[in-house]
Amino acid sequence: MYELVRSQQTREEARLKTSIATVSIAGNLAEKFAAISAAGFDGVEIFENDFLAFDGSPRDVGRMAGDTGLTITLFQPFRDFEGLPEPQRNRAFDRAERKFDVMQELGTDLMLVCSSVSPVSLGGIDRAAMDFHELGERAAKRGLRVGYEALAWGRHVNDHRDAWEIVRRTDHPNVGLVLDSFHTLARRIELGSIRSIPADKIFIVQLADAPLIEMDLLYWSRHFRNMPGEGDLPMRQFMQAVAATGYDGYLSLEIFNDQFRGGSAKAISVDGRRSLVWLMDQVRREEPALEMAIPPMPDRIGVGGVEFIEFAADRQDAGQLGSLLRMLGFVEAGRHVSKEVTLYRQGEINIVINTERQGFAHSFFVVHGTSAYAMGLKVEDAAATVARAEALGAEIFHQRVGPGELSIPAIRGVGGGLIYFLDAKTDLAKVWDIEFTPVTSASSGNGVDLTRIDHVGQTMAQEEMPSWLLFYVSIFRTTKTPMVDIVDPAGLVRSQVIEGLDKRFRLTLNGAESHRTLAGHFIAETFGSGVQHLALATDDIFATAAKLQANGFEPLQISMNYYDDVEARFGLDPEVADRLRSANILYDRDDNGEFFQLYAPTFGEGFIVEFVERRGAYAGYGAPNAPFRIAAQKRLMRPKGMPKL
């Protein structure tokens, strides 16, 4: 239980010390400090360009940082220092003295010196060590320190092992090592070498993840870094090696990312703090013997699937939505004991329509229109889920509980919607019995053999995807699949999937780069309501299609050219191809199984309902079919400029 986990935290003074470089987020220095402080960071690195662009003195910067409760952990970078011939060497020391002046006014004691890329640098470990020893002497006179970092593209030093050897030979208390995860991991340097470095000689640890891309190291570093957990580098293993040294100083994010520089400083700062807490939580669980100051929290939570999807609507749209659900084989199974909320059910699928005139659902409807504003997840422990989410910076949702209602734990999710949590160990498992009065017609209806929710699709601006990926994988026991580009006739949509370990929870995240795509249109028209796509599973897609047709359902019409290609590409029996064609069913296959998809025409401003059948161990989501169904869906869209009826 979470309370037991909390009781194990006895050392209140043991605190995870976190920092972030100003270059990581957008805004001027005042805006950056405010966002960084609000996210819960303890410190901030001052990137020199941010300081140079500031219209004020170093003392002003130091005062601003202090006023927001931030310690200036580092001033950086000092470039092209070591191994220079004269007269460049003497000028480098003069430059360093000027930077020391700035540091003292800023109120920071640590300067980062990155390994030289100067074409005139002579190299040589002993030569560099002599330079650093003299620099250490000068720093010591002012009570300052110098940290040396190996750039992955350094001219002579591009490996932390060489940087450490220089620091070791320097043998000066005011000269230490700066470890940067990107520079080490980008060059695939053996991590065991970190474990032998004395903790007191590691002056600061900088962290950045990145997607695995084959490109020039400098360009990769300057444009594609992201938060730990958002990329593909082995960040946990890196920090396990650092933790093994006994290091207990600042963990600082240094993120160069074009999208982050244009995004919300507040949101990206929150992501950054979350990424550090999650990273160190992983390390603690892998290395329980190590003493680490990590906020207490339960382990990542397993998800057993989606228990319900809830729509916010007015009465008119609720009637249309209810008619659609009945045509899809759902029956009205219950009505809320005290609210205007109706439950529709088929198999294990629960769809809720909320037409309340007050409360959160109504507020969401006013802003976004009729939309799927909430989903309920089946989790192992609902209270523990919220506790972990809160420890990772998620926004907890509270609403007044009315008569006959349970207090269902919830957090805010994509588009400002809600994620509710239900478990089997409390009365939350009886929510449908406690909160709803059964409807006598529930046993009747024209079901179409839908069994469960296969997956839910959420849509967002493309630059928000890393944030929500981090959100889900840090809270829940899930994995993420590689990103896939979905071709919309109007542009690309980036898609990535979050899956539970047993595959009963599947969530597709779709990032729109253009408002002209179907995904972008949905975001624009619903003001980013989040949930756009609901995929419902059946064990027999052809039987389901026939029953849907009997209910008056008209499927999304797929181009006949598609079926000619599918038949040839997969070598399908003509009879099978004809069955697909006649029912407008899409088909895909991988090495492990087959996948069948049937789409309803879009509802509202682009809400998608899909029926799927998986045969064998098919692991995908029909991505090769996406361009063809998107083209069909866009043919039915309201022309641009035409008012809504």
From TrEMBL:
Residues 302-424, 452-601 form the VOC domain. It is an enzyme of class 4 (lyase). Its EC number is 4.2.1.118. Mg(2+) binds at H455, H533, E610. InterPro entries: 4OHPhenylPyrv_dOase_N, DSD, Glyas_Bleomycin-R_OHBP_Dase, Glyas_Fos-R_dOase_dom, IolE/XylAMocC-like, VOC_core, Xyl_isomerase-like_sf, Xyl_isomerase-like_TIM-brl. Its cofactor is a divalent metal cation. CDD domains: HPPD_N_like. It catalyses: 3-dehydroshikimate = 3,4-dihydroxybenzoate + H2O. Pathway: Aromatic compound metabolism; 3,4-dihydroxybenzoate biosynthesis. Pfam families: AP_endonuc_2, Glyoxalase, Glyoxalase_5. A divalent metal cation binds at E149, D180, Q206, E254. One of its GO terms (molecular function) is 4-hydroxyphenylpyruvate dioxygenase activity. Keywords: Dioxygenase, Lyase, Metal-binding, Oxidoreductase. Catalyzes the conversion of 3-dehydroshikimate to protocatechuate (3,4-dihydroxybenzoate), a common intermediate of quinate and shikimate degradation pathways. Belongs to the bacterial two-domain DSD family. This is 3-dehydroshikimate dehydratase. It comes from Mesorhizobium escarrei. The lineage of its organism: Bacteria, Pseudomonadati, Pseudomonadota, Alphaproteobacteria, Hyphomicrobiales.
